[in-house]
Design a protein that fits this description.
single chain, 270 residues, alpha+beta, BirA Bifunctional Protein, domain 2, 2 domains, 7-stranded mixed beta sheet, 6 helices, globular, binds biotin
Length: 270
């Protein structure tokens, strides 16, 4: 697929940013194994917070729960953001919710109607009114004692892809599909997201996870009935009604006996 907007570059991104520090340094690679791995390497070598590593394609893109992230060239955004938050390590996981909130705000600003599925999916409506996944977030932390020495937030966002491989064809969508086939400039989409995210990260630094939960809830789609499975244990399932998200990012689920469970990690099936 060719990109009608010209190749994404650090210069084009800089020109579209209104941020002070986020995304001001960026690397755009034709291909790499995983931008999260590369951002981790840069972090260990001392790179500053705000660095964005983006690739046109990935050969080993990773999703949550050990899944592969489908990363073909020429169409989408695969990027990782290096952060060095000062909050305690225990407060870092809800950052995923904050980043989802920033993505949703950016997409809403582009005229789309995003919804967030706990904990890390951004969904858009397809032509038949069903919600499909347009983006996923993978937050990885390296900690030193009770502090995070660095955090890498990886985002895979389907921007201009129209056709998906059979195994995800029923589940995935893209911004272009949601806009009736109209393509978007990947750099403009990334800048819109980073411009939203920077002030939200300042909020997170000040307030902590509650800021992330607020940002998430503004776009959350909490299903009336759902099932949650634990990572790697598909047989252990919890069924009930999603009531909301606790201040620490845990999903609150009420089962059929009325008991309320706090789910810290897992997969939501609707
Ligand atoms: C998920 O929904 O499971 C999370 C997907 C995260 C994918 C992105 S693509 C850029 C970054 N590099 C990776 O290897 N993964 C993340």
């Amino acid at each position: 697929m060719t990109d009608a907007f010209g190749p994404p570059t650090a210069e084009r991104l800089s020109a579209a940013l209104t941020t002070g520090w986020l995304g001001r340094a960026s690397e755009w690679l034709p291909s790499c194994a995983s931008t999260n791995d590369l951002a981790g390497e840069r972090a260990r070598a001392g790179a500053p917070a705000g660095l964005v590593i983006a690739a046109d394609s990935q050969t080993a893109g990773r999703g949550r729960l050990g899944r592969t992230w489908h990363s073909p060239p020429g169409a989408n955004l695969y990027l990782s953001i290096l952060l060095r938050p000062s909050r305690p390590a225990a407060e870092i996981p809800p950052l995923t919710l904050l980043v989802g909130g920033a993505l949703a705000r950016a997409l809403a600003g582009l005229g789309l109607a995003p919804r967030l599925k706990w904990p890390n999916d951004v969904q858009l409506l397809d032509g038949t009114g069903r919600r499909r996944k347009a983006a996923g977030i993978l937050t990885e932390m390296s900690s030193a004692g009770d502090r995070a020495s660095h955090v890498v937030v990886g985002v895979g966002l389907n921007v201009n892809q129209i056709d998906f491989p059979p195994e995800i064809a029923e589940l995935a969508t893209s911004l272009r599909r949601a806009r009736g086939g109209q393509p978007l400039d990947r750099v403009a989409v990334l800048a819109a997201f980073l411009n939203q995210l920077e002030p939200m990260l300042a909020d997170f630094e000040r307030v902590g996870p509650a800021a992330a939960v607020r940002a998430f809830e503004a776009y959350a789609a909490l299903p009336a009935t759902c099932r949650v499975t634990a990572p790697g244990r598909p047989d252990e399932r919890l069924q009930g009604t999603a009531l909301g998200v606790d201040p620490d990012g845990a999903l609150r689920l009420q089962d059929e006996t009325g008991q309320i469970h706090r789910v810290l990690s897992g997969e939501l099936h609707t």
